[in-house]
Amino acid sequence: MINKEPDPTFLSLNAIQAIMQSPRYIINLAALRHNLELLRDLKQEASCHIVLALKGFALWKCFPLISEYLDGCCASGLWEAKLSHDKMGLHTLTYSPAYKDSELKDLLEISHHLDFNSPSQWLRYRETVTSHPRFQSGKLKCGIRINPEHSTGSTPIYDPCASGSRLGTTAEQLKHLDLNGITGFHFHTLCEQYTHDLASTLEAIDDKFGDYLRHPEITWLNMGGGHWITKPDYDRAHLIELIKATQQRYQLQEIWLEPGEAIAIHSGVLEANVVDIVHNAGHQIAILDVSATCHMPVSTCGLPVTGLEVGGEPYFGAAVSLERMCCRALSRSEGIFAAASVGSDCEILSRELGSAISIG
Questions:
Q1: How many angstroms separate the CA atoms of 227 and 234, rounded?
Q2: DSSP code of 201?
Q3: d(Cα 101, Cα 125) in Å, to the nearest integer?
Q4: Which pTM value belongs to this model?
Q5: What is the DSSP secondary-structure string of 274-340?
Q6: Overall domain count for the chain
Q7: Checking DSSP bridges between strand 91-96 and strand 72-75, what pairing results, if any?
Q8: CA 352/CA 339 separation, integer angstroms
């Protein structure tokens, strides 16, 4: 009797049902590759480095594809750094508003850039960092996040340059700091913005930090994220000009970018199902098997949903409020559910329970 291995091209009914369960993310790899090709071309033309911002896209099953095009990941703490190290295996650029003693030991082993938010954090850990073998060998580089105090965005909660911001070191705070051991600077001031905002930011940085950037010890600059590089109307040629001009102005060896949304934008959907319809005070409320806080970026909370589909068809009814999803999220033994108010125009959602909803 010959035992044959199961044909991998055929899936069992149970396997298919498991795959079809919601909530689920459905990724269009061709669309993702298209974005990555644009980023790769920009990298080559500008002679810069680009890494994936994990807070924007962390679906690590896609990392083998992403690693063909990008240089690694940027991490906002230990667990993202571990994800980058374990699943991407390329450069890991780590920045956090503050580090703890218990985290630093591991971060020194797996980070390639370790950026500090404040003079006090750098002074606290400088001796530990500079005495580490990876720092002494050049495998680990340290930087300071700077705050140019130059606001360009329209949404205050996303503005790291706003008065009272906790993010980054101002020029005044940098005046008396001993930069021995620091080889680069890092700024992140944009959020879904275009090149004219980057251009004005770079001028503000030159005005306040230009003398520091011209020090021979400073060899790299990290321009952070928030660049909408893969949007159809984004001026990539202008970005290349800005990168090259900045590199020439300060005689830098490396310039890094950390896009998140630009890497995965328009490459997939989050699919959910309507589990129940609740009526209250004239509102029809669809109970979905997703949670904005658990399954979607935190930045979407409180914003209207776009790209809503029901049963594979575009839905043009009342907008779903993710703020209400957040407020009404509740735990159940079989998963996390969220309530999304769809106003009084809910007929298309209430035709039958179990209608699939895609949010892209």
A1: 9
A2: H
A3: 9
A4: 0.80
A5: EEEEEEETTEEEEEES--HHHHS-GGGTTSB--SEEETTEE--SSPPBHHHHHHT-EEETTEEEEEE
A6: 2
A7: parallel
A8: 17
Which residues fall within 8 angstroms of residue 271, CB to CB, at 6 or more apart?
22, 23, 24, 25, 26, 356, 357, 358, 359
Provide the 8-state DSSP code for 192: S
**β-bridge mates for residue 83, sequence order:** none
d(CA 195, CA 235) in angstroms, rounded, equals 7
pLDDT at 352 over 50: no
Residue 40 belongs to a domain with what CATH number?
Answer: 3.20.20.10
Domain check: are 252 and 289 in the same one?
no
Map tokens 């990008």 to a residue. Answer: 70
* Residues 232 and 202 occupy one common structural domain: yes
Closest CA to 186 of 112, 93, 278: 93
Report the run of H or E that residue 269 belongs to, with start and end: strand 268-280
Give 61's contacts (C-beta < 8 A, 6+ positions apart): none
Give the residue numbers spanning the domain of 290.
268-359
Cα 152 to chain centroid distance, Å, stands at 19
Residue 17 lies in a domain: no
Q: Return the closest-CA partner of residue 186 out of 201, 196, 199, 165.
A: 201
Query: 44-85: per-residue pLDDT in tens?
Result: 999 999 999 998 899 999 999 999 999 999 999 999 999 999
